[in-house]
Design goal:
The chain is mostly helical. The protein is 43% helix and 6% strand.
Protein backbone atom coordinates (compact mmCIF):
# COMPACT_ATOMS: atom_id res chain seq x y z
CA UNK A 1 0.00 0.00 0.00
CA UNK A 2 2.86 2.41 0.75
CA UNK A 3 4.50 1.43 -2.49
CA UNK A 4 1.28 2.18 -4.39
CA UNK A 5 1.08 5.81 -3.11
CA UNK A 6 4.75 6.47 -3.98
CA UNK A 7 4.17 5.20 -7.49
CA UNK A 8 1.14 7.50 -7.90
CA UNK A 9 3.02 10.61 -6.74
CA UNK A 10 5.84 9.83 -9.17
CA UNK A 11 3.33 9.51 -12.00
CA UNK A 12 1.79 12.90 -11.17
CA UNK A 13 5.12 14.71 -11.21
CA UNK A 14 6.02 13.16 -14.54
CA UNK A 15 2.79 14.55 -16.05
CA UNK A 16 3.84 18.19 -15.43
CA UNK A 17 1.74 18.86 -12.32
CA UNK A 18 4.77 19.49 -10.09
CA UNK A 19 5.11 23.28 -10.53
CA UNK A 20 5.90 26.15 -12.88
CA UNK A 21 8.47 26.10 -15.60
CA UNK A 22 11.24 28.64 -15.85
CA UNK A 23 9.58 30.20 -18.91
CA UNK A 24 6.31 30.72 -17.03
CA UNK A 25 8.11 32.38 -14.12
CA UNK A 26 10.04 34.67 -16.50
CA UNK A 27 6.81 35.69 -18.27
CA UNK A 28 5.16 36.59 -14.96
CA UNK A 29 8.22 38.58 -13.82
CA UNK A 30 8.27 40.43 -17.17
CA UNK A 31 4.57 41.33 -16.86
CA UNK A 32 5.10 42.59 -13.28
CA UNK A 33 8.08 44.64 -14.47
CA UNK A 34 6.03 46.23 -17.26
CA UNK A 35 3.22 47.11 -14.87
CA UNK A 36 5.68 48.68 -12.41
CA UNK A 37 7.32 50.71 -15.17
CA UNK A 38 3.96 52.39 -15.83
CA UNK A 39 2.72 52.64 -12.24
CA UNK A 40 6.01 53.46 -10.45
CA UNK A 41 6.57 56.98 -11.85
CA UNK A 42 2.97 57.96 -11.09
CA UNK A 43 3.28 56.78 -7.50
CA UNK A 44 6.54 58.71 -7.05
CA UNK A 45 4.92 61.80 -8.58
CA UNK A 46 2.03 61.56 -6.09
CA UNK A 47 4.53 61.25 -3.26
CA UNK A 48 6.29 64.46 -4.35
CA UNK A 49 2.96 66.26 -4.72
CA UNK A 50 1.86 65.16 -1.25
CA UNK A 51 5.01 66.61 0.33
CA UNK A 52 4.38 69.94 -1.39
CA UNK A 53 0.77 69.93 -0.15
CA UNK A 54 1.90 69.06 3.37
CA UNK A 55 4.41 71.94 3.32
CA UNK A 56 1.70 74.36 2.18
CA UNK A 57 -0.56 73.23 5.02
CA UNK A 58 2.24 73.59 7.57
CA UNK A 59 3.15 77.07 6.28
CA UNK A 60 -0.50 78.10 6.60
CA UNK A 61 -0.58 76.71 10.14
CA UNK A 62 2.55 78.62 11.11
CA UNK A 63 1.14 81.80 9.56
CA UNK A 64 -2.09 81.35 11.54
CA UNK A 65 -0.09 80.92 14.75
CA UNK A 66 1.85 84.11 13.94
CA UNK A 67 -1.44 85.97 13.43
CA UNK A 68 -2.68 84.75 16.83
CA UNK A 69 0.62 85.93 18.34
CA UNK A 70 0.04 89.32 16.70
CA UNK A 71 -3.52 89.55 18.06
CA UNK A 72 -2.29 88.86 21.61
CA UNK A 73 0.86 90.98 21.63
CA UNK A 74 0.14 93.68 19.06
CA UNK A 75 3.28 92.91 17.09
CA UNK A 76 4.84 90.21 14.95
CA UNK A 77 7.87 88.21 16.09
CA UNK A 78 11.19 89.79 15.16
CA UNK A 79 13.88 88.04 13.15
CA UNK A 80 15.87 87.46 16.33
CA UNK A 81 12.86 85.92 18.12
CA UNK A 82 11.86 83.88 15.09
CA UNK A 83 9.35 81.07 15.13
CA UNK A 84 10.52 79.94 18.57
CA UNK A 85 8.53 82.86 19.99
CA UNK A 86 5.42 80.85 19.14
CA UNK A 87 6.49 78.23 21.70
CA UNK A 88 8.26 80.27 24.41
CA UNK A 89 7.53 83.78 25.64
CA UNK A 90 10.14 86.26 24.49
CA UNK A 91 11.47 88.27 27.44
CA UNK A 92 10.24 91.71 26.42
CA UNK A 93 6.74 90.84 25.07
CA UNK A 94 3.57 91.56 27.02
CA UNK A 95 0.25 89.88 26.34
CA UNK A 96 1.83 86.63 25.16
CA UNK A 97 -0.77 83.87 25.59
CA UNK A 98 1.00 80.90 24.05
CA UNK A 99 2.28 78.47 23.18
CA UNK A 100 0.69 78.97 19.78
CA UNK A 101 1.80 75.63 18.35
CA UNK A 102 0.97 72.12 19.52
CA UNK A 103 3.83 69.77 20.20
CA UNK A 104 7.21 70.11 21.80
CA UNK A 105 9.13 71.84 19.06
CA UNK A 106 9.03 73.65 15.79
CA UNK A 107 8.00 71.46 12.88
CA UNK A 108 10.41 70.77 10.04
CA UNK A 109 9.26 70.86 6.45
CA UNK A 110 8.44 67.50 4.80
CA UNK A 111 12.03 67.29 3.54
CA UNK A 112 13.44 67.57 7.07
CA UNK A 113 14.65 71.16 6.86
CA UNK A 114 13.61 74.01 9.19
CA UNK A 115 11.19 76.67 7.99
CA UNK A 116 12.69 80.10 7.34
CA UNK A 117 11.15 83.10 9.09
CA UNK A 118 11.76 86.65 7.90
CA UNK A 119 10.38 89.87 9.37
CA UNK A 120 9.66 92.05 7.55
CA UNK A 121 8.78 89.79 4.67
CA UNK A 122 8.94 90.36 0.93
CA UNK A 123 5.19 90.69 0.45
CA UNK A 124 3.85 91.19 3.98
CA UNK A 125 4.89 91.87 7.57
CA UNK A 126 6.55 88.43 7.72
CA UNK A 127 7.41 85.43 5.56
CA UNK A 128 7.39 81.77 6.45
CA UNK A 129 9.27 79.85 3.76
CA UNK A 130 10.14 76.27 2.87
CA UNK A 131 12.73 76.03 0.12
CA UNK A 132 11.24 72.77 -1.18
CA UNK A 133 12.90 69.47 -1.97
CA UNK A 134 16.27 70.92 -2.97
CA UNK A 135 16.57 73.15 0.13
CA UNK A 136 17.66 76.14 -1.97
CA UNK A 137 15.87 79.34 -2.82
CA UNK A 138 13.98 79.26 -6.13
CA UNK A 139 13.25 76.18 -8.17
CA UNK A 140 10.31 74.54 -9.88
CA UNK A 141 8.00 71.64 -9.14
CA UNK A 142 8.79 69.91 -5.85
CA UNK A 143 11.88 72.13 -5.52
CA UNK A 144 9.86 75.37 -5.68
CA UNK A 145 9.68 77.65 -2.66
CA UNK A 146 6.54 77.45 -0.55
CA UNK A 147 5.84 80.86 1.00
CA UNK A 148 3.24 82.17 3.43
CA UNK A 149 2.25 85.16 1.31
CA UNK A 150 1.26 83.02 -1.70
CA UNK A 151 -1.88 81.65 -0.06
Amino acid sequence: MVKNSLTRSRRRSSRGEAGFTLVEILVVITIIGLIMSFVGPRVLNYLGDSKVKAAKIQVEGLASAIELYHLDTGLYPSNSEGLSSLLQRPGNVTGWNGPYLKGHGLPSDPWGKPYVFRAPGQQSAYDVVSYGADGREGGTGASADIVSWAR
